[in-house]
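Quick one, T. Sequence first:
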Amino acid sequence: MTRRGWAALAVLATSALSALSLGNALYLYISLLLALVFLYSFVTCLWARLSARCEQYLTEASVSRGGRVSLSVRAEHHCPLPVSALRSVIIYNGQEREFLFPVRRYRAQERRLPLEARHVGVYQAGMKELSVSDIFGLFRFRVKLDSPSFLTVLPRPFDIEKPHMFLGEDGSAALARTQEDYSAPEDVRAYQVGDAMKRIHWKLSSRKRELLVRRFETPAPPDTLIILDCDEPQGGESVTEGAEYLRDAMCETAVAVARMQMEDGSPVRLPIYGTHANEFSSDHAGGLALLQEMLAAQPFGGGEDFARVLNLELRRMRRTGAAVIITTRLDAQIVEGISHIRRMGPSARLYLVTYSPEAPEYQPYVARLQHHLVEVCYVTPA
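Structure tokens:
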């Protein structure tokens, strides 16, 4: 029962008591009228509640940031008497808003509610609550609903400059040298016109009575290591939804670097030291969708300290050709960690995601990084 219902019930009790105590017919008629209103409201509201059916679904389970999806809602009830419009509560992006859903008797109504994908993440989206009320607003009953669905907002990559490999090659030079390295034989094959004479396996050829040529191991190309700061973004306090836009920019920068490298068949590794620890590894563009989903599902905050993450990743430097570091913070410990990575051999590029790239507190750290031949790039969230 609503507040209006309790107020009407108090009026009914008062008029009934007055009719019984004073014997006045007017109070008796008022009491009977209110009782009929209560009976009508209760019956119609309960009937609509028991016969109500509601279905909801998202037109798409995932969408790139900046896109739109629709929440499709289909509702009906079979009460022949007039009732009020269905009142629904829509939840999305952690916020709730009410929506009136007029439903005609014996006829299903379908509505599409647009939802904007403003920020990267996984959000609950759908009707959290649906209630039916009588035309007088005295009673309100909730309709049983399925749990809301989840919408995955994926990071949208952009074009960036390809990182340089400081191993001295992109893998092809290492392949040529290994083919000339007789300490790494893998197999033999029949001689073909144009094969170098020094690759012929003379002893085995004399036993088999045919020319056989050594085959050598094909080395894997060096990895591109992407180190993403999964801690709470820093520096967005002065901007509305600043932390969310910083998180979007970090995820989209990581996806942009990975896409560029994997399009050329270069292996990419991205360890995630956030609340849900994980690691992405792929060397083909088909794995980009998996990376987007992993980053969207990662809540930023509560992970390992980023300076410690840089030190932990030093163990990968033997197979790393380029290290790409993405963060919103810059201090002495982080600068020292990036410098250690650069001294281990691979190239290093820092993407500093910030609203104030010209801030004076960054300049000494940037100068130190450039002194160690670390490329510093700025990303300003849009």
